[in-house]
Amino acid sequence: MTSIRTILLVDDDSRLRDLYGGVLRRAGYTVTDAENGAQAIACLRDSGFDLVLMDVNMPVMDGLDATRHIRKNAQTRATTVIALTSNAMPEEVAKGLDAGCDGYIVKPLDPEELLRELDAILVTE
Ligand SMILES: [Mg+2]
Q1: Distance between Cα 80 and ligand 1 center (Å)
Q2: Which one of 21, 39, 59, 70 is least enclosed by Cβ atoms within 10 Å?
Q3: Ligand 1: distance of its center to the CA of 94 in Å?
Q4: What is the pLDDT of residues 92-101, one digit of tens each?
Q5: Is 90 exceeded by the pLDDT of residue 6?
Q6: 28: left (phi over 0), alpha (psi -120 to 50) or beta
Q7: Does 83 reside within a domain?
Q8: At what angle do helices 111-124 and 14-26 cross, to 10 degrees?
Q9: Domain presence at residue 66
Q10: Average pLDDT for residues 98-108, to the nearest whole number?
């Protein structure tokens, strides 16, 4: 299992960043927030993260474009990216995987569910 300590949490909804960021920090992760894909890429340029939790629908740059960018860049290519999506339709999920996401978590979900889903995904990495 990959050892995850640092998480980049990307979502344009500040309430979700607070909610999910809070539970992840209490679980012992070091969490950095970004509010769109462009900010996420800037954060990744400054420092590496073990995991990116990437919202899909965001202004400025959406999560799929940001993930494609992460996969193209040699410095960030190996970073685990999990999409946080509010649309679990198979074609939406396929788009995320095509863009290079390693997995996805469907919103809305309560923070404890986020931890459980994350554990399940990371165990199978
Ligand atoms: Mg969003």
Answers
A1: 19
A2: 59
A3: 18
A4: 899 999 999 9
A5: yes
A6: left
A7: yes
A8: 60
A9: yes
A10: 93
